User: Fold these one by one.
Assistant:
Number 1:
Amino acid sequence: MRGHDWINTLLPDELLIEIFRRLDSKSNRDASSLVCTRWLRLERLTRAAIRIGASGSPDLLIHLLAARFSNITTVHIDERLSVSIPAHLGRRRSSGNSSVKLHDVNDKHGSASDQSDLDSLCLSDSGLASLAEGFPKLEKLRLIWCSNVTSEGLSSLARKCTSLKSLDLQGCYVGDQGLAAIGQCCKQLEDLNLRFCEGTSCLSLELLALYSFQRFTDKGLCAIGNGCKKLKNLTLSDCYFLSDKGLEVIATGCKELTHLEVNGCHNIGTLGLESVGKSCQHLSELALLYCQRIGDAGLVQVGQGCKFLQALQLVDCSSIGDEAMCGIASGCRNLKKLHIRRCYEIGNKGIIAVGEKCKLLTDLSIRFCDRVGDRALIAIAEGCSLHYLNVSGCHLIGDAGVIAIARGCPQLCYLDVSVLQKLGDIAMAELGEHCPLLKEIVLSHCRQITDVGLAHLVKGCCTVLESCHMVYCSGVTSVGVATVVSSCPNIKKVLVEKWKVSQRTQRRVGSVISYLCMDL
């Protein structure tokens, strides 16, 4: 009806914003924003992305945009593109009769005296600080050839935009402080592009972790290897386009490397690891997870070249076997921690070599390695004084191996023997007699262990035992559960089926018992 603004009267802000979001084109949104000041204000709230080119004063432009659009999550600034600020906006910020200067970015004939004017064409640290202040919800930022941005501006961005997930610094000149700030503050960062950042000076970079950088290639890794000579700690996780070539450059360029983790980088293989073994003599920790292309020769070379290796982790490396472990044992006599999971080619021979030569080993985990049996544990017990042992799922291990550990490793504090179907009460009795420092034990799925075995176990370990997991132990009844909780004054956690806990036990120590969720 003429004279009545039914839409503005009846529709709340939230509904109008949703309508604006559903408009199918920018031109329609722009037209709608011209209807009235309310629609202009609400339409601006629907804008999530802006694209900015080189202008007479990019810092001013960002300041103006930040004041108008508060819900921006994506910003693209490309100084190869020429964009002018409307004259009335420039005059609004100008003093006297002067106005914002606009330059031809392709003019190559300017004098040296024009350098300060030419600098105004580029986004500065001040402009980047304004961007961070104005767009705190920022998740994706592209700064293309923003040559005046330095670490100072990048640090301001990092402190304000902690939700940043994607950062493209293609052609920018940033250094150690800026990238370090991004790493410290932007914990959700998933994508980082440093392409054409030849001026990037990260000479002091010591730690770099790249997780799921899907577009990161050997070119970027080679740049790191050639430029970051002080790099000590490197994690490469799910970077599918990296290969041996990139890791070779890291190895030859970053000779101070002490920690290396390669996780799910399926194109990195034996040759890349061989380069690490040849060049990274200070390597102390190595983790290889889901590396199907790395074979024995790679670890043999690590054994020959990395004499200071103290920790090795292998997970789902199907091509690594006994030859690799023998090589590690021969060369890495300082090994203290060895964790292996689902490496089915590793058997008794490799673990026996470790027991015979790695006398400093205190932390051993061999999970679901179905070729490792009692002989391996006997060798470990004879050569090493373990504090931590996990042999979950190694079905060839029985009483003989665990008894050897009990007698040879009196300092044992943690033991996981879950899913060992051949393990029985005799081993429990030996643990109780010889391992007085045992604090945590996992017995789940050990069907041969009974209440009798538990009684012998806690008889010797009762004063220090704090945790006992024993779900799906068919030989254990409510009597065994009661024995554990009543005999161990420091017990803090017992994991068991609920039906095995008597009401009396529940009343006495119900707070320390955790139940397996299951339908009965």
Note: The chain has a mean pLDDT of 86.
Number 2:
Amino acid sequence: MDGKLSWTVADAVDYKGFPAEKSKTGGWVPAALILGIEICERLSTMGIAVNLVTYLGGVMHLPSAASANIVTDFMGTCFLLCLLGGFLADSFLGRYYTILISASIQTLGTAALAVSTKLPQLRPPPCDGIKDCKEANGFQMGILYLALYLIALGTGGLKSSISGFGTDQFDETDEKEKAKMAFFFNRFFLFISTGTLMAVTVLVYIQDEVGRSWAYGICSVSMLVAISLFLSGTKRYRYKKSKGSPVVHILQVIAAAIKKRKLELPQNVGMLYEDSSEQGSRIEHTKQFQFLDKAAIVEQGDFEAHGAASALNPWKLSSVTKVEEVKMMARLLPIWATTIIFWTTYAQMITFSVQQASTMERSIGSFQIPAGSLTVFFVAAILITLGVYDRIIMPLWKKWKGKQGFTNIQRMAIGLVLSILGMAAAAIAERKRLAVAKAVGGDTATLPISVFLLIPQFFLVGAGEAFIYTGQLDFFITKAPKGMKTMSTGLFLTTLSLGFFISSFLVSVVKRVTGTDGEGWLADNINYGRLDCFYGLLTILSLINFVAFLVCVIWYVPQKRKDQQKSGIVNSNMAEEKC
């Protein structure tokens, strides 16, 4: 029996529902097929997002602030829907079917976007002069929104499940496979960056020089190819059995704790309830969030008779392990909250920074760089940072500290610092651009200043993303309970969502406070605005947030308790007590 268990994965099954054999399932080949879907998702989502602001302003004739908010709302919704995708994967569909259905929905969305950008009836007529421009009407914008939010729905489902399904292909109890899984996070981000690089170079060029409908059609076809490859690996994948919705689990613990809020906690934590069936996965009791411990106090009526046997009511009583799982998720929240601001600064790279680029000199000889392709420096910074970290920093850090690179919290901290420097650099660059605009006239189509002035802000924020994304992904997956990893991934991705939504909120507030009728810091024509002040505001907010992050980190890593005694437990039959 032990021999059989050694060549199967304990908590995984194959496509027929039998225990997954290590030699026939899992590993890098299935993981690569899963990551193929991720490349195409990035190609579509980022290929649309980085150049959408120029389409909204130049073709749909919308003001700059409104265009920026549409882009950030779209990106925010993409990541917010990760929570829905995670819930469906955990409760009903499983990760495999969530990926398959979501990829199909995104394909439908990119096809709809290709049609909406092709038909002249779905966009306003070209401008007659600078000021005689007719904005897109409600019907035209409605079709555009339909296509965009179909893509967002598909992206949400994919983002919530791809990283989790990828890690499912490696056995955490096998040291060799565990080592491979550690590299999976970096490879995962490398694939994301590869898809983004293709999006901001090849796809943006096709949009500007050949046609947007062709570019979005390519996205649809590439996703169909990726779906076919994904399906080809069906027999090779390892599937983890769903343990039900973690949301229900969390609500049960909270409900039981509220019901027993007036009860006194026993001095000996060994008197709290523990389920004997959880012997192999028990989590040691901790002193934080002690009000939740009341959910594990055994009280009359917690067990209900079912024939000759009795079973606990999970809405009245929870085991110590289940309570500790909820505590583990609660401990993630302060770190979660203080990493949101990074993605607000990131949002500026695909909105206002692209608008800045569209006003500057972008020619190299006879070739003109598309404004949306400036984000190639952003992606290049990510790839360079990952390469340097992988090949230089990690080996040196291992020799010096004996550890495999920076911890996930250290990586997040580095990312936040780089985003602060990036926003400061952006404010300085914008002041120089505005000085030139004032000298030659704000209505000048192309200002005599090189677009390469924007490289520092793209590079600093891009390098920051390389650190913070891998740090967050590692932190939220490894620090979450096993049964809540999909939910935890969704929680991580909501930091991106809220970062984009906060960007939209700040833009709206700043526009209302600093001026109306197309004026103020965020004027309709950015040559007459004060975008440098907006970037300065983000720099200050990011600095304050970093201080809050450090406080949360200190709180997250509590001191070890001195009384590390092994307490007894009350088992599920309420008959055994150990001291």
Note: Residues 239 and 425 are 46 Å apart (CA to CA).
Number 3:
Amino acid sequence: MWPLARRSRKMTRLLFLTQSLSSNPKPISHSHTYYNYSVSRSFHNSISHLSLAFLYPIRSPAIRAFCSKPSSAVGVGSLPSMTEDISYLTQREAAEIDEILMGPLGFSVDQLMELAGLSVATSIAEVYKPSEHNRVLAICGPGNNGGDGLVAARHLNHFGYKPSVCYPKRTAKPLYTGLVTQLESLSVPFISVEDLPLDLSKDFDIIVDAMFGFSFHGSPRPPFDNLIQKLVCINNYDQTHQKSSAIVSIDIPSGWHVEGDGGAEGIKPDMLVSLTAPKLCAKKFFGPHHFLGGRFVPPSIADKYKLRLPPYPGTSMCVRIGRPAQVDISALRENYISPEFLEEQVEADPFDQFRKWFDDVVAAGLREPNAMALSTASKNGKPSSRMVLLKGFDKNGFVWYTNYESRKAHELSENPHASLLFYWDGLNRQVRVEGSVEKVSDEESDQYFHSRPRGSQIGAIVSKQSTVLPGRRVLYDQYKELEEKFSDGSIIPKPKNWGGYRLKPELFEFWQGQKSRLHDRWFLSPL
């Protein structure tokens, strides 16, 4: 269901007009050559439906995007592109920032602890799916780092994991006893040091190291010295290629000095979740997953300490630092967990079934539920696909709008048959629709055209899809010219080469992902 990138012998710099759904760059990499194929639905702001696709060589193989909204960046200067561009805090600076947060800036320790623990839980969920790494052990120390671990365990429980907690030196303060009570109310088990297995990897998929934070000094005392050795043993198992638990350290790997490392015999976590900003010891972290969490650094602190931190994507509580580990594509798989989609649950009329599922997607709040892949073919059978937006459907078919001089339009004029594919990842569902295609009436196209924002109307006029342009500036200039022409609020005429298509379904396929690839799939024809 996923698009494949095709390598050509010679890549030249081209500028095409196109339509797309995403404004995020999508890197496409090949052996010895790196390309970046980026598409944009809009020029942001008011130019909402002018879109360009650039295809050009990328000089550096290290291309990363921290988030989709650069304006949310913390700190000054350009977006950090490499780990070396990130700020690292000394022990003194970390302590000062905590004092400022909980002093003049009005944060309480429980607020910061809640944000930190949530950040740790979301970082874990970014990498380790609960369907494959369900069993979690949080080893918590007596201080704030341990409190972060308790909060993380609560959130992981709500995320669908099965956490257990080892909390040998409990703090009697109300904040900590309250966290324990919250976990007990969720039936999260607490395990004593004595009851832990000798090999933690046999009972747990993930170990959350929440023993010591940046204020720790000296050598670990019992029982934490023994617990740290258990985590070191997990590293040793991993080196002998035996199955081992993933170790996730909060802010500082326990036993490490905040400005140094744990030495050759210290913990080597698979994931480090830095809080506020990475500490100096994070430079010695060489595990595959480094995240920043907390999202509570205000501009005043960022300016005072000249912090350069990556922006958080969207509403996320964590952001990856550095390049992710290389992935074995052949090993990427999702074990879908979905309710059964039984025959007696399938609506007799496929239009009713589509409406039912579409309403579910809208209710679930998934992004752009009307996004669909439109596949067409030329008269010679050469196929092409692209993402478009569904703009209406009923018993007569599925409607979208486009430029009548685009590639898809030319192919539909030669071969008026197409397929649509809706993929709704959040619900493990997809719907494929096949059928014949015809243009909608001029009246219907005109009515929809004038329902769009005025910026989109102007964009449709200047956007000559699938044609080569000398540069983006041409579009900007044409857009600004028309924007000025129609600034008096007069009606913007629909271009003759723009309008809608309707696919009249001949076949529906409803797919529901299930465990072990035993998916539910139902083929329906219109009544």
Note: The chain has eleven helices and 21 strands.
